[in-house]
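Late entry, written up from scratch paper. The run itself happened at the end of the previous shift, but nothing got recorded in the book at the time, so transcribing now.
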Amino acid sequence: MGRYQSGSIYERCGSYFVRFYVTEIVDGQPKRVQRSRFLADKDDKHFSCSCKAVKKLAADIMSEVNGERSNNTEIRVVDFWEKTYLPFAEQNLRPSTVEGYKQIWGQHLKVHFSATTLGEYKTHHMSVFLTSLARKLGKRTLSHIRSLASGIFQHALNIGLVESNPIHGCQVLGKTKDVPNTPHYSLEEAEDIIGALADVPLAQTVVALAFFLGLRPGEIAGLQWGDVDGEWLHIRRAVVRGIVGDTKTPESVASLPLIQPVKGMLEQWWLSSGNPKDGWVFPNGKGNPHDLREVQRRLILPSLEKKKLKWKGLYAGRRGAGTILTQLTGNALAAQLILRHKNLAVTTGFYVKPSIEAGVQGMKLLEAAATGDANGK
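Output as recorded:
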């Protein structure tokens, strides 16, 4: 709650005014500013700053100022998002994170908050809202919506516009939709797709980088020829929605061994690009990093449709790389290092997928151990 004020009455040009302070959003930040309101013109009833009639008018106005409006909870959530939280996010968060926030806001939260103010919004509002979405959206999507809403109110709390975060403690009231397994490619599927793109070298090289080296789309778009160093590929930056920036995490900056067939495809792409010494590996017509969404739409999908092959996306290649590496090495550590996750739990939880081949191989090992044939007996 804002501090209590009695106001300061003053006379100017034959009229009386009351002066006070309010907190307003200026350049996206709360700022204490001085404001004044007209009370009355000077006459027989209102004859001095200290007369009863003038003081009564001032007291009425200050009662309003010191009431619910004084803690700035009358600011609409949509205005706070546009003027304060979004600019804050754009200055401090990765472009890909901001784009995700914008998508969630536009699809779900903007209409939900509508004309609601920061002070009016309560925990049960979010619980009812998420529950209404639970039948058509998965747990992960609901979690993203809840997380953004919480971040908005937490920021308002941290700059003194609200006294608590109403999103804390909200729950989905009932069952939620099961989350489908994220897709991945097997080695055979990856080879089929790369073979189908033989006539589209740009797309083929992009897909190979995702399938065999596990690069994220933004890291592929951010590659420069200076990052290709003999037997190594150096990951130094990412490009998201055309914006050049840092990689997703500090751990993502790394050097990966160049293996065949990726090395050969990069060499062929380099030759067809005119043997450049620098610049983007995959430039568009204007010399900027290629939008890989367009590469998928214009080059990859048409080629695969002709071959009747299913496209699961570049991230499916990254998941496939993690799964294949785990199968070949017998543990997820190699996958963690190549995918450059901070901890092994992320690798095993989201990027290493179960496969029937691994199950069959495991059962054969169990059979050998149980029958005494572990050493070929």
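The chain has three domains: 8-71, 77-158, 187-312.
(Scratch paper discarded after transcription.)
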